[in-house]
Amino acid sequence: MAYKLIFLGSPGAGKGTIAQKLAEHLQIPHISTGDIFRSNIKNRTPLGLQVESITSSGALVPDELTIALVQDRLQQHDASTGYILDGFPRTIPQAVALDNLASIDIAINFVVPQEVVIARLSGRLTCSGCGRGYHKIDFPPKTPNVCDICGNALITRKDDTMEAIQYRLTVYEKETAPLIQYYQEKHILANLNSNQNLENVFMELLQTLQQVNK
Ligand code: AP5
């Protein structure tokens, strides 16, 4: 089934981990603005150089830049019938812009307490090659510091320092949390309990999607 989905929720809520799993399950693209920025930074593109210091600090990239990036990505062939937008929109202007670009089926709000988020982010490891996420304690790789999938080294993201985590949470409350009400008022918001093991989060998500009229 080809849904057009938004994954909302605070940093570390588990959006990226579940988006990857659902994208494989539904065979639709996982469009993560954070991943797109990180890939540009890694490849030293003009966009990467422009956003590197912004993303490392935990601040948001300007709306105009982010909206143009997503607009371009949604026009690509693989996104013609469905996709998961992970980490976009993140501000009201981005949500308004998206309204003009797409008809979203459902916005999934990943709900998890802040202390859990901090524990998740401070233990996160990310593959420097494919971007897959691990956790030092909860989801360690089979071989220490090596990605199970592509064999590249695991790194700690620059914005996973305690200072940047705290800042990202502040930015989330101010800029992104208002989107919960935005999508509630459009009657397309579904809350998902992300404070449970991955299998249960995924199962609850599939049940939620079954209720969407397609
Ligand atoms: P982005 O990459 O989107 O970062 P984020 O929103 O801070 O989200 P995270 O990747 O930190 O969290 P997540 O919810 O995906 O959690 P994950 O699944 O990894 O954005 C990075 C930066 O790019 C932004 O700060 C900004 O600068 C810029 N940017 C991006 N989009 C933008 C936009 N639209 N506008 C402007 N700027 C933008 O899980 C976290 C950890 O928890 C992992 O270790 C994982 O293994 C573990 N975990 C996950 N689920 C579970 C579970 N159920 N149980 C136990 N552990 C779990």
SSE layout and pairing:
Layout lengths: L3 E6 L5 H12 L3 E3 H10 L3 H12 L5 H12 L8 E4 L5 H8 L6 E6 L2 H9 L1 E4 L5 E3 L18 E2 L6 H15 L1 H8 L3 E5 L4 H13 L4
Parallel strand pairs: 1-3, 1-4, 2-3, 4-8
Antiparallel strand pairs: 5-6, 5-7
Helix pairs in contact: 2-3, 4-5, 6-7
The structure holds BIS(adenosine)-5'-pentaphosphate.
The site of BIS(adenosine)-5'-pentaphosphate has 37 residues, from helix 1, helix 2, helix 3, helix 6 and strand 6.
Report on the architecture of this protein:
This protein has 214 residues and is of the alpha/beta class. The protein has a domain at 4-112 and 172-210: Rossmann fold. The chain is 46% helix and 15% strand. It contains nine helices and eight strands. The chain has helices at 15-26, 33-42, 46-57, 63-74, 92-99, 114-122, 162-176, 178-185, 198-210, and strands at 4-9, 30-32, 83-86, 106-111, 124-127, 133-135, 154-155, 189-193. Strands 2-3-1-4-8 form a five-stranded parallel beta sheet, with helices on both faces. Strands 6-5-7 form a three-stranded antiparallel beta sheet. The chain is globular and about 45 Å long. The model has no long low-confidence stretch (mean pLDDT 95). BIS(adenosine)-5'-pentaphosphate (AP5) binds at residues 9, 11-17, 32-34, 37, 54-55, 58-61, 66, 87-88, 90, 94, 120-121, 124, 133-135, 138-139, 159, 168, 194, 197-198, 201. Pathway: Purine metabolism; AMP biosynthesis via salvage pathway; AMP from ADP: step 1/1. Belongs to the adenylate kinase family. One of its GO terms (cellular component) is cytoplasm. ATP binds at residues 12-17, 124, 196.
